[in-house]
Specification:
This is AraC family transcriptional regulator. A hairpin with a 7-residue loop joins strand 8 (260-265) and strand 9. It is elongated and about 70 Å long. Helix content is 40%, strand content 23%. The protein contains nine helices and nine strands. By secondary structure, the chain is α+β, with helices and mostly antiparallel strands.
Length: 293
Amino acid sequence: MEWLKRLNEAIDYVEDNLENTLSYDEAARIACCSTFYFQRIFSYVCGVSLSEYIRRRRMTQAAFALQRKDAKIIDIALKYGYNSPTAFNRAFQSVHGISPSAARKRGIVLNAYPAIRLCVQIAGGERMSYRIVRKSAMRVVGLRTPLAEDMEKNHRTIPAFWAKVFGSDAFATICRLSNQQPRKILGVSIYEGPQKMFYAIAAQTEQPVPRGMFAYEIPAATWVVFENSGSFQEDVQSVFRRFFTEWLPFSGYAYAGLPDIEVYPVCGEFPAAGNSEVWIAIKESEEDEKCGI
């Protein structure tokens, strides 16, 4: 349960610095993981991206300030990290649906987003089928696109990348590379450092790397495998959320921080729904005490 404690401490840091310069890197350090993984875990566990959470919390506080103080709007904007009145107005309207000046009126309806506090809650009942496998190192070959530390941006980038690759001859080439039977195509999220984050559409193979593609070696690891049947995008998001909030806290394992792998069937149409798998690398729980989500 140590990972949950660290995530709460990172959220405490965010809350304590809503009126100051807020560092994603510092929040990730407190959570004992990379900035990329912290944002990813946060979005799955909390159901909202870190950037959106911070925006909502700052605009909640800004609305309180507008209604109880006579301070200038620009001063409140600066207090919550907005140097531009236009940017502050846009952020405020995205949360409240009205302008900051309109928010001063008594009786106006505003939206308040309370601070998040994470705890393990047993909702019970819904089955989560899985299997644990030990797999030797695997080599994947395919195409990749850079990822950002902003998870909101990644949620737009990845579907667009799938659409682009599927509409090209490269998709068929990747499918032919697969050494799995039946053939599978993989979605792989890889983090090697702040400047080396990318998502790959690839196949597991020992074949030579086609021109314009790349090869990547995933180390041997223990994996928990979840099976899905339904909408790929929705189910994959759901698996990661349930992994962190329902499976991991009671499993005796810790998240290993290796590439996360989505496994899809090779098909002639754009892969939107069907049977798929999510592979997440795990390690023994005592390693969690060494500060590694």
